[in-house]
Amino acid sequence: MDHQPLLNDPAARLVEKPIATVLVVDDTPDNLTLMASLLQGHYRVKVANGGEKALRIVRSDAPPDLVLLDIMMPDIDGYEVCRQIKAQEGTRHIPVIFLTARSDTDDEREGLALGAVDYITKPISPPILLARVATHLALKATADFLRDKSVYLEREVALRTLEVQAIQDVTIMAMTSLAETRDNETGNHIRRTQLYVRTLAERLRHHPRFEAVLNDRMIELLYKSAPLHDIGKIGIPDSILLKPGKLTVDEFEVMKTHTTLGRRAIEDAERRLGMRVAFLSVSKEIAYSHQEKWDGSGYPEGLRGDDIPVSARLMAVADVYDALISKRVYKPAFSHEQACATIVKGRATHFDPDMVDAFVELAEDFRAIAQRYPDPD
């Protein structure tokens, strides 16, 4: 048999693939010599006369591409060597072919169960050995390619996901910044209400009435969407939006349209995108329905009870609490205690009763959030 390199043409060598490395493990020197002579010229060959040495080579910085492994060895038998190769993340993908004089079916079953890819009995047939080594190296090359491709695609997906999240965050910030230029509320109001909503949702996530809705994904969407709850105020005239006194009946009717204007603005954004986006769907719910009341006396539709989206019910508690403790052109700031009393008074009339109960448990957390992000003097 010609053991010269398979590609001798200089032009062909330019595209020649790296030569695979085969590790032969056997405690008999004659067997190592025989196997090396068969494989040389086709592959780079490493040899080990025992299990310990074989494992050192496998775990080195230059591991083999395939292992031909004798079973019966004095220090560590082949089964244990295979078991250790397959137990480590960095080596488990290396194919192992057992070489043995034993032909018992149970022995073969045990070797394959440990992760070996093939089982060749001695005395070795050179053509069979070379064919099986070539086959399993080709399979490994394909598996490595697919695994590398999978890792690459996972990285790309993760990168694209981060980009999409960044775009969402920038979109929200841009839209809320527009609203802030029209209103007397501050960026800290936006930050506080975000945190109130998330805190309340986290407390209620295991409540029987809410556990089907308030999963990790939904809570994250609520947190991202909360800043858009008053986006519709951008369409309210300054004479009404910034009026220092009480609104007239007609003015209040105009103010109430901020819920419809908010939903419409987000729907327009969706149409421009040409697709539905989860966080914008939640944003629409909050913008449109956060002024609804549990007893049906709210607006714009007079929804009552569980007909009001969970997202809007959460936002109602957060928004009212923050409005009460904040100074406005038409009123002074309430104390935390006064705000809490007002929320409790609105239980089962303005607010979902279970949400009010959760709020009472979290009152000090709400106070801490308000103190951490105060409005500028």
Q: What does this entry look like structurally?
A:
- There is one protein chain.
- The protein is of the alpha/beta class and 377 residues long.
- Mean pLDDT is 86; it is low at 1-16.
- Helix 5 (105-113) links the parallel strand 4 (96-100) and strand 5 (118-121).
- It has helices spanning 10-13, 29-39, 51-58, 78-87, 105-113, 126-182, 187-204, 216-225, 238-241, 249-256, 258-273, 278-289, 310-325, 336-345, 353-361, 363-372; strands at 21-25, 44-48, 66-70, 96-100, 118-121.
- The chain has two domains: 10-152, Response regulator (Rossmann fold), CATH 3.40.50.2300; 183-372, Hypothetical protein af1432, CATH 1.10.3210.10.
- 56% of the residues lie in helices and 6% in strands.
Summarize this entry quickly:
The protein has helices at residues 10-13, 29-39, 51-58, 78-87, 105-113, 126-182, 187-204, 216-225, 238-241, 249-256, 258-273, 278-289, 310-325, 336-345, 353-361, 363-372; strands at 21-25, 44-48, 66-70, 96-100, 118-121.
